[in-house]
Structure formats: C-alpha cells, structure tokens
Amino acid sequence: MPQGGWATPAERVRGRLAPLVALLASSLLMCCLVTLPDQSIGWPGLATASARFVGWAGFAVVLAMATALVSVGLCARLGSGPPLALGTTAAVLGLALSGDVSSGAQVVLVLVLLALGVGGLFGSGLCLLEELSPGQARVAVVGWLLPWLGGWGLVGWLALHGHTSDRTRIGLHPPAPVLAAGVFVLLVFAVATLMLEPHREPAPQLLGWENAWAALSVLVVGAASLVMLLGYQPDLAPSWGRPVVLLSAAVGAAGVALVPLTLSDPGARPAYLALVVALATGPACLHALLLVSAEASGPLSWWLPVMLALAGAVGVWAGWRAARTAVPAGLLLMTAS
Q1: Which of 109, 95, 6, 11 is closest to 63 using CA atoms?
Q2: Which residue, among 255, 217, 209, 191, has the nearest Cα to 70 in the 3D structure?
C-alpha cells in the first residue's frame, strides 16, 4: 500500500488475494518436503540411485535455509515477488523430475530444485507480511499456517496412499490440473508484485524474532552440515552411527533450548520453543505412526487424516486460549507418545 494510505484497485485486489496466495505457497512448499514414508518406501531405490543420498539431503537443507535467509534479507529491497517466482518455478521443476528417480545425477538435481523451492516459498511468505496492512497480514498468516498446522497427517496419508514400490518418488505430487492452477495463481501474483512495487514497512518490534530465527537457522545449518559431511562417506563404519546420532541430538537439543534466550520478550519464549519443537519432531513422529499402522493393517482409511487435522485445530485453539497450560501439556503429550 502506498505511503499516503490510499490504494489502487490493482493493489486492493492483490491484498484480497494475499491469503489465498499464502495458502497455495505453503501447500506447495509442503509438497516439496521429503517425508518419512518417501524415505522408508523408496530407500532401496534412492540408495541404488545415489550412495550419497544422505549427504545430498543435508546439502539440500543447507541450501533451503540459505535461500530463505537471502530472500528475507533482501525483502526490503526486492519484496516478495522474486522469491515467490523462484520458489514456485523451482518447486514445479523439482516435482516434475522427482516422479521416478533413477540416477545419481537426477537425485542431486531434484534435491537442489526442491531445496530452492522450499527456501524461496518460505522466504516469500515472510516478505509478504511486510507488504500488507495489519488486517490483511493477520488473514494471510492464517492462510500460511493452515497447511503447517493441520496438513501433516494428510501429507503422510497421501504419501502412503499413492506410493508404489516399483517407483522411487521424492515429494508429494498433486494432480496436474490442481498443480497447474495453483502455480498460475502464484506466478501471476509474483508478476503483479514486481509491477506494483508495494510499499514495505518492516516492524521494529520484530527485531528480537529475527535474531531468534537467525540463531535457529545457524543451528539447523550446522546440524545439516554434519549430516552432509557424514553422508558423503558411504563406507563409514556402522559403529560410528549411534555415537554420531546421539551427539548430534544432544547438541541440537541444547541449541533449541538456548535459542529462545535471544527473544526480547520473555513471554514469547515458551511459545517459540513449543513451535520449534513441534515442527522439528511432530511431523516425523506422526508419519512414523502412520507408516507403522499402514504396514501392520494395510491401506489407511480416509477419515484418519481428517481426524488428525481436527486434532491439530483443537491443539492450536487450546494453545491460543491458554498458552501457559497448553504448551507444557502439549510437550508432555508429545514426549509420552
């Protein structure tokens, strides 16, 4: 919106479309993630295609974080248009090439494209908030968070439902018409953002949050770099596996516990810690439960992801209404399960 407070019709339309764009970008981002069912079912094919798949996966995490950080760092100068266009294009190309991976070069190319897609889409979502009015930004945040809060069960169910052992697939592949329609909306929105050049007003009160996310990014990149270095050595002795995993987990847990100290608002530290722990462990735990259930009893019913989405919505509502009680209870529940 211009500095004078008025908005042209094109800018008003863009503001109304922002929640839909945030929802589509977040959904496309989740389609690019390598889930636990993908790794479990397709591991023989991935290991055959590339003996250094684990190392390249660690490199992909580093590349995704670097792309997101660069996008956010250049947000005040470039806006959300370039990272949204980059992320959408890279994600579509990566998904198109990841339907049946058969060679090491294809594995590397797919992981690089998906990493660029994840980083660009994530960075564009954060930049988009600085280009909207406070009311529009609140609605856009809801659209951005919906897939993250209630979509993990659906992603795991779809990964198990459409995965066959004779094809080595990476990521989640939505139907072609749905993907084409979503990509069209995202690219048109990105081009409109580049043409309109909306005014951006970074909020000074978010400085503490930026420091916390930067510290968390350093922690993730460090852990991914360790995975990358070890994964590039397929002949590593198996006796090294458990000590390295335990050491990495201990360093990661200590880092996650210390990162909230960078927040300037002490009241926000429990919520930040709960969000980070939930995103770091929740999807893997949930997908592990789905994977075990599918192997034990066959294909899972359609109502299961619906119930998981409703459970996620209830958890979000409880955390919103009573954070001091819901956050410790949620962490204890995740630990017990």
Answers
A1: 109
A2: 217
SS3 of residue 165 by DSSP:
coil
Euclidean distance between CA atoms 86 and 111, whole angstroms: 15
How far is it, in rounded angstroms, from Cα 199 to Cα 210?
A: 20
pLDDT in tens, 310-326: 877 777 777 777 767 77
Q: Judge if pTM exceeds 0.90.
A: no
What is the chain's mean pLDDT, rounded?
A: 75
**How many Cβ atoms sit within 10 Å of the Cβ of residue 100?**
13
Q: What is the pLDDT of residues 149-192, one digit of tens each?
A: 777 777 777 777 765 556 677 777 788 888 899 999 999 888 88
- Cβ–Cβ < 8 Å for 141, 56: no
Distance CA 290, CA 74 (A): 39
For residue 274, the surrounding DSSP H or E stretch is helix 269-297
**Phi and psi at residue 142, in whole multiples of 5°?**
-60, -45
* C-alpha dihedral sign at 331, 332, 334, 335: positive
- For tokens 């459409």, the residue is 162
Q: Distance between CA 1 and CA 310 in Å, rounded?
A: 36
Asked if residues 269 and 260 have their Cβ atoms less than 8 Å apart, the reply is yes
Cβ 113 vs Cβ 56: under 8 Å: no
Instruction: Give, rounded to a whole angstrom, the gap between the first and last alpha carbons of the chain.
Output: 47
Whether residue 215 contacts residue 48, with contact meaning beta carbons closer than 8 Å, is answered with no
Tell me the mean pLDDT in the region 233-250.
Answer: 65
